[in-house]
Amino acid sequence: MRRAAAGLGLGLVVLAAPPAWSQPAQDPIDALLRPLPKDADVEEAEDTSVSPNAEQDPALPAGPQPYRPYVPPPHPTLTAPVFVHETGKNPDAPATPTEAAYDSRLRLSAASVQGFQGPMDGGWTLSAGGQALYALQLTDRNGAVEGAWRDLRRSGALDAYGFFDIVERTGGRLTFRFADGIVAELHPQGDRWTGELVEGGRRETVSLIRR
């Protein structure tokens, strides 16, 4: 009787259990989106930071370096060549390509400026009888002469200097017109200019010499 009851109970349990094939399959995307439990074991990411005790490249500075402005090397101070038999002197190193290019540009610029200068460009002194009368500073560009004058006999006077009203070049002659009707008419003679100066109604022989 007991065996029959036990067999009947086991049969009811088997009938009540749902078949294994009827259970729904687990969704893998749902497993990824579902939050993990608080007590879940999460694998920590590998620490890639540099340890303060790690060895440092000795060629690198130990920390940030202060700003140091660039200081160009000193300019050569020698004014004459150094020969082999001279002791205690060190010759300058050859010019670098940058220095050579800079010097070349300076020479070309100077030659270009001088190419525009005429023969009257520069400083001159107008004298009479060995006494310096006027200092002239002239510019000669493409044949046009301009400039300023200063009366050397009245140093410090407010009206002792000024610009030429006009400088006329006629053939080989030059005519300088100062203020107050002062006129100098000159012609070339050797390395200077000679002629007459009309000043205050008086004429005198003068010469113009480059300073």
Summarize the structure.
With 211 residues, this protein is an alpha+beta fold.
Give an account of the 3D structure.
The protein has 211 residues and is of the alpha+beta class. It contains 3 helices and 9 strands. It has helices spanning 2-16, 28-33, 97-116, and strands at 122-128, 131-141, 144-151, 161-163, 166-170, 173-177, 183-189, 192-199, 202-210. Strands 4-3-2-1-9-8-7-6-5 form a 9-stranded antiparallel beta sheet, with no helix packed on it. Strand 2 and strand 3 form a beta hairpin. The protein is elongated. The model is unreliable at 4-17 (pLDDT under 50).
By DSSP (H or I, 4+ residues per run), the number of helices equals 3
H and E string: HHHEEEEEEEEE
Strand content: 25-35%
Give the strand tally. Answer: 9
Rg, Å, rounded: 52 Å
pLDDT average, as an integer? 76
General shape:
elongated
Q: SS-based structural class?
A: alpha+beta
Task: Show the helix and strand layout.
Elements: H1 2-16, H2 28-33, H3 97-116, E1 122-128, E2 131-141, E3 144-151, E4 161-163, E5 166-170, E6 173-177, E7 183-189, E8 192-199, E9 202-210
Antiparallel strand pairs: 1-2, 1-9, 2-3, 3-4, 5-6, 6-7, 7-8, 8-9
Keywords:
single chain; 211 residues; nine-stranded antiparallel beta sheet; 3 helices; elongated
